[in-house]
Specification:
Layout (H helix, E strand, L loop, with lengths): L1 E10 L2 E11 L4 E5 L6 H8 L7 E6 L2 E2 L8 H6 L1 E5 L10 H10 L5 H14 L15 H13 L5 E5 L7 H16 L3 E5 L3 H6 L3 E6 L2 E7 L3 E2 L2
The chain binds adenosine-5'-diphosphate and magnesium ion.
The site of adenosine-5'-diphosphate has 11 residues, from strand 2 and helix 1.
Amino acid sequence: MIKFKKLTKKYGNQTALKNINLHINKSDFVFLVGPSGAGKSTLMRLVYREDKPTSGKVFVGGIDVAKIKDAHVPFLRRRMGIVFQDYKLLPCQTVYDNVAYVIRALGMSNEEIDKRVKGALKVVDLFHKINAKTEELSGGEQQRVGIARAIVNGPPLLIADEPTGNLDPKNSQEIIQILEQINRRGTTIVVSTHDQLIVNKFKKRVITLDSGQVIKDECNGIYECR
Ligand SMILES: Nc1ncnc2c1ncn2[C@@H]1O[C@H](COP(=O)(O)OP(=O)(O)O)[C@@H](O)[C@H]1O
Ligand SMILES: [Mg+2]
């Protein structure tokens, strides 16, 4: 699903990522961990083509992401859901409109939009708040809207950059449980976090970055992955 090959990213003379070689398979659930400044967000931004590598390559679904023309980047992003630490919702709009926003631009029928929005809200257990304004919701609820919006188009890949960074432990666990449920249906999931409690509780593949390099890649803390 995602392949990083000899990937290096520099900002001026600052090296954010150095010679990253990784393979994330279809239907994997991966935690990307490491201290602040380790390169987690940079690695994710390269996957959704917010940025391009300095050298090396990023492949998503076999496609060299850096080679996609700017005008075609929206097509890439339609095949992935992106979840942010600060939710990035439209505050004055309803839960429904926030989730519908992306697929409305795709020219789907209202009936189809309605079906998908309601389906996504059921996955995140927020159907009962469908008409609430997002600014009236708790942080955990807002992040659930963020996840519903990310999955509404049924993407094969979901990327979440510190999705629990602003949440308490209980809400954080709920968010990861929802992502786990989405993963069970076949969606590849990559989650960055520096919450050790979460990483310990949910036994997943853990890729550890430090100063832009992969220093560990383990599954269940038991064996080295590849
Ligand atoms: N747009 C940018 N311009 C300059 N330096 C950046 C930029 N984005 C990230 N960096 C640098 O790259 C390194 C990795 O940052 P980042 O990917 O945000 O780490 P993390 O998400 O693990 O905290 C840091 O040293 C950061 O200062
Ligand atoms: Mg970050």
